[in-house]
Amino acid sequence: MREAAQVLVDAVSVGGLYALTALGIGMIFGVMRLVNFAHADLITFAGYAILMFFAQSTMLAIVAAVIAAIVLALITERTAFRPLRGANPETLLVSSFAVSFFLEKTLIMVVGGRPKGVDFLPGLARQVDVAGVRLQLLHLVTIAISLALLAGTTWILRATRLGLEMRAAAENFRMAEALGVRANRVIAAAFAISGLLAAAVACMIVAQTGLVQPRMGLQLVVIAFVGTVIGGLGSLPGAAIGGFLVGVASILLQALLPEALRPFREAFVFVAVALVLIVRPLGLFPSRSLRQRI
Amino acid sequence: MSSASEVVLRVEDLTIRYGSLTAVKDATFEVGPGEIVAIIGPNGAGKSSFLSAIAAIAPKTRGRVEICGRSTDGVPRSEIVRLGAALVPEGRQIFTTLSVIENLKLGATIRRDEEIASDLEAVFVEFPVLAERRRQMAGLLSGGEQQMLAIGRALMSRPRLIMLDEPSLGLAPMAIARVYDKLTAIRSRGVAILVAEQNAARAFAVADRVLIMSHGRFSLSGRPDEVRAHRDFDGAYFGVVMGGVSR
Amino acid sequence: MTRAMRESAARLAPLVLLVALVIAVACAATFAPIILQRRVTQALIMLVSVVGLYVFAGNSGVFSFGNVGFMAIAAYVSALLTMAPGQKSVFLPELPKLLAEQHWPGPTGALAGGATAAVIGALAGFPLMRLSGISASIATFSILVVVYVGLGNWTSVTGGQNSLMGLPNYVGLWTAAIWAVGAIAIAFAYQESRGGLLLRASREDEVAARAAGVDIVRHRWMAFTLSAFLSGVSGVLLAHFLGTVRVETYYLDLTFLIIAMLVIGGAGSLTGAVVGALTISLLTELLREAEVGFSIGGTHFAAPAGLGDSALALLMLIIILYRPKGIAGGREIGFPSRTVSVAGRNDVPPPDISSNHELE
Where do the structural domains in chain C lie, given as residue ranges? Predict the structure, then answer.
């Protein structure tokens, strides 16, 4: 019973990270139809920003991570993706793959490819007693931060003028522009928010693994991708839920699978994903604005 | 520089070509405040291209468009409404994933003044059916209600000119009647209205001026009674010139 | 020649010209030093891989990021079947006896590898083909990851993360060239077949194709399976060229390379796939030389390691921005007036506000 609670908390915290990642990806897809593979590099660069500053001050490292991710997001938007606005999603996806590869290889050129150890937020690496069960503090903090960011993003989208413009642009960009919504503003906002989410994820990943390496964002993003597909491309709640489910599933499978099969849990996740997609090719929460013409 | 009698929309020699296809040729006319001008023509006459070009949604090949005295050359799509022209496009294009009130608020997105809330209430007074459904998803509204919403949304930007593309399309006769009643009410507040319509009857009934568009050209124009009485009316509408020149 | 014969000849022109190109390249390399021959062999292997990707991505318009996974699967299958039992017992002591005993000749192992990849492709592709284009692309990432993690962890059968060495080295210049010719022929036959043509029609306008009764899902699935087979074969060739198999080889870097080759060459035509593979192989070769550097007097000039990769990514982005149809521009060699993809239609009706999400 205790073990079940621990596994559950672990699963929910991982689910939270994937939900945040999927949300960041979904947000940009909403306004631009771009599935941003380079989101992985936002996480990675934020991680390296932490590496640069963690020794001086935790606060500084966190701020640096946020700034690094947001600035990188805005730079990639301005230089690589703005000229591609209006291209079809396939082209955008392949371009973001190229951007990601470019960023990763350039990073390797500059700092080398080896993982580096980072002792970030060591204070969180302990256990706390909650109702008689010993839980990882880091997991609890991750869950809290994930919830806070999800709530904050939801608030921005539902309660602010900017959020309203973003939601309108996601449904019908042309009409939104005809009403005066400025494309640059809305798209830059989406990128900035996704940068913020990436930085938060980076902080927690670095705290959990104690490492930074040039591919740290990739694993998360590839799995988050699958989450957005299950959740339904074009739906933000769908993306978050899909990401969450895939994250939770991978941890639960880890716990439930017999020892010999554990290394293959990715395959099982994939099979589960495939089953969901067979039944619901448009995802669990298909976006109404993406419905086929016919 | 701006006076009450200033022309709200001036179009000169507007030509729109897509490759080898000419959608609109040398269109010239004006709309003044408090006027309803209707462009009537069959499908494919070029009405939609015409409105799209004015709203900078589609590029124009040649010609000049001025909204409230300011040229639209080089003006991006999102700035047209800031010049004073609001568009109610074909098919309404309301945001189905947003609520009614959110759709209306979006209409005011260019405004930063303090009177948005009171304008919102005014729209609800003008369109009671929207008031009832203010928190509902706009996708649940009927065709006629969506058209009201689209018009209300356009009004929220306090435009000098409202352009409507085929507002009666897909609507039941009673809904169409209500729409045109609203347009009359809006006209009386000094807003200029430009309507593109296939449904000639309604437009003729309310318009101050009509222009018959056929094959991209204005073949007849003038007051509704004059135009209707013109002996070349049928030909002008359907693009077949009977005997003489249709002017 | 009758008109019909001339038309058939015209239709076959791309096949003939591309095959001639490959043979010409192989001939030229025969007279080159061994090192260069090996580079050309590798380029031809990449050609098979890119053609494999093209068969699906080019015809359906949906990019697959999972084909390198099929390369890995086929490579390991072929390795396991063709390695000498003695070698296998050294590297894979826990290998099930049935597999450990097999000692097949190279080509049979290659076909077995390709076939296995095709079967897995058919299975994995089945749920994916009903997805919209972009969702399917994203989902194919998971194929890559699942294969990478799965093979990397299946230590008893694959050796896990370690290299499997001692594979029969039967892939030389001309073996690769022959397989390259074969791949081109298969790809060409497919794209000229009814299935291929219907799939390409759906690429241009999915709704119209559906309305015409085309079963897009089924055709995509068939293309995907064929694509898996060809990619699998390329994986086998790579493994038996290098003499080793390692899971790490068949992951993101290789995926990026073949996608870059296809995009830069032009994803809309077989010519694009071939041209892309050959030009980028040449380019990476030059960049590699730059990274090795050269010495003038006592100073050594060299590009920083990793520059080649960054440069390739940059090139791909530039092509996407300024020549999105790639070098071949969507056209097949030998067809001066026929476009495979739809280039600049002048009679397209104007964009209007009801075409929802066009940003331009």
Answer: 10-251
| Distance of alpha carbon B182 from alpha carbon B188, whole angstroms | 10
CB contact under 8 A, A178 and B110: no
Which residues of chain A does C130 touch, with a Cβ-Cβ cutoff of 8 Å? 277-278, 281
Give the contacts of C155 (CB within 8 A, at least 6 positions apart): C94
Q: What is the pLDDT of residue C93?
A: 81
Quote the tokens at residue A22: 């999927």
Asked if B57 has any chain C CB less than 8 Å from its own CB, the reply is: yes
Q: Which of A116, A113, A149 is nearest to A240 (CA)?
A: A149
ipTM of this predicted complex? 0.88
Task: Report, as an integer, the average pLDDT of C257-271.
Answer: 93
Q: Nearest by CB to C347, which of B16, B19, B49?
A: B19
Q: Choose among A172, A180, A183: nearest Cβ to B81.
A: A180
**Length of chain C as a residue count:** 360
- Calpha distance B94→B88 (Å, rounded): 9
Pairing relationship of beta strands B209-214 and B36-40 according to DSSP bridges: parallel
| Helix (H/G/I), strand (E/B), else coil: B200 | helix
Band of pLDDT at residue B236, cut at 50, 70 and 90: low
Compute how many other C-beta atoms are within 10 angstroms of the C-beta atom of residue B79.
16
pTM of model > 0.80: yes
pLDDT band at C345 (very low <50, low <70, confident <90, very high): very low
CB contact set of B243 (below 8 Å; sequence gap of 6+): none
Q: What angle do CA B208, B210, B213 make, to 5 degrees?
A: 165
Calpha distance A158→A94 (Å, rounded): 31
Cβ proximity of A282 and A230 under 8 Å: no
Structure tokens at C184: 């081109």
pLDDT given at position C340: 44
- Residue B26 CA to residue B213 CA, distance in Å, equals 12
pLDDT higher than threshold 70 for residue C351? no
